[in-house]
Amino acid sequence: MKTSKRNSRMRALVSAFLLTAATATAQTEQAGKSPWGAADEIGTLNMMSESNNLALFSKIRTGKVYDLGVEYFTGMPSFTALGDPPYLFWLTHTPRGTVVGDHTHLGAEMNNKVSYTGDAISMYTHTGTHIDALNHFGLHGKIWNGYAADEHLGDRGWDKAGAEKIPPIIGRGVLIDMPAYKGIDVLPGNYVISLDELQQAIKAQHLQINKGDIVLIRTGLMKYFYSDKEKFMNSGPGMSMEAIKWLVEQKGVMTLGADNLSLEALPSKDSSNWLPGHTYLLAQKGSMFIELVYLEDLAAAKVHEFLFIGLPLKLRGASASPFRPLAIPL
Predict the structure, then answer these.
(1) pLDDT tens per residue across span 129-167
(2) What SS3 class is residue 151?
(3) H-type helices in the chain, by residue range?
């Protein structure tokens, strides 16, 4: 009986210690302050410069352009499991409907002559190829640079660090092809890319990561995007926190991207943070990143170094924007 009581007290002490440690860790994780000033809303994208852009454009020796964006279509993989709306597309005008309804008030003769089609879409901003804005994730009520939700989040979105603030992104792009390194088509399940494995892939593929680069990680998951929605949504291979931190803190990359749902591996193995990579990159480091990048053509051509150009939509106050990335081999 005494032994049982001692064990119970020991378990209680251990539980209390672990709870205190977890609380202390949570309290130390705070939104980062920008080295680019109190008014900064774009974080590491401040690393771009006109001189660097000019130097990159001067290295182009081909007219080949790779489109790194996915198609948007009804039934496409999306975050509906979290209650977010799916991608919806509907026609607002059809050639025959315009004739019957005479919505133009021009009469049947004119409407029969001129065929008119119009349509509309509705979707979650984190659908398809997109870039996460810095207001997407925060810590303890604050986003990057200390902007508080209580002060800056209204009924029409954030008035700080919204998607409309994201500039055209231009830089040196580097593709790290993890399935090619491992000799497989696609990383399995929720496979976690370790730092050691990432570094070995970089070495094997003769890559150089420079400060200010845009690094894209291929998991091969795009193999299922158009053909097997369930398999795509139920697979979560991605980066480990150690690998993400190394690229950001040691290599000084400007931004990251991947062909999966969340850049980091899902589900997270961190019991104190359900998406630690998101809070680390967006809230603490001010580093936006790109998800659902189509890397299959680039990988098939074995293009690992390229001029990267990405254009977001200026969606005021939004936490993400659809993104059209291009790669031009260097």
Answers:
(1) 999 999 999 999 999 999 999 999 999 999 999 999 999
(2) helix
(3) 2-28, 50-57, 95-101, 108-113, 149-152, 178-182, 195-204, 229-233, 241-245, 276-278, 296-300
Tokens of 140: 């303890």
Q: Phi-psi bin for 295: left (phi > 0), alpha (psi -120 to 50), beta?
A: alpha
- CA 269-274-279 angle, 5° bins: 110
Please say if the pLDDT value at position 236 is more than 90: yes
Condensed to tens digits (0 to 9), the pLDDT of residues 34-47 reads 999 999 999 999 99
Tens digit of each residue's pLDDT (9 = 90 or more) over 208-231: 999 999 999 999 999 999 999 999
- Class in CATH terms, 31-81+126-329: alpha beta
Residue spans of beta strands (DSSP E) within 136-288: 153-154, 157-158, 169-177, 192-193, 214-218, 238-239, 255-258
What is the structure's pLDDT at 14?
Answer: 36
Peptide bond into 267 cis (omega under 30): yes
- Cβ–Cβ under 8 Å, residues 164 and 206: no
* Distance between first and last Cα of the chain: 74
Q: Residue 23: is its pLDDT beyond 60?
A: no
Spans of all domains in the chain: 1-30, 31-81+126-329, 88-122
CA triple 201-238-185, angle to 5 deg? 60
Largest CA distance in the chain: 97
CB 116 within 8 A of CB 311: no
The percent of residues in the chain predicted with pLDDT above 90, rounded, is 85
Which alpha helices (H) appear in 125-222, and where do they start and end? 149-152, 178-182, 195-204
37 compared with 12, residue with greater pLDDT = 37
- Contact assessment for residue 16 and residue 139, using Cβ atoms and an 8 Å cutoff: no
Instruction: Tell the residue number behind the tokens 């150009």, with chain if given.
Output: 309
Q: Look-up: residue for tokens 């795509």?
A: 232
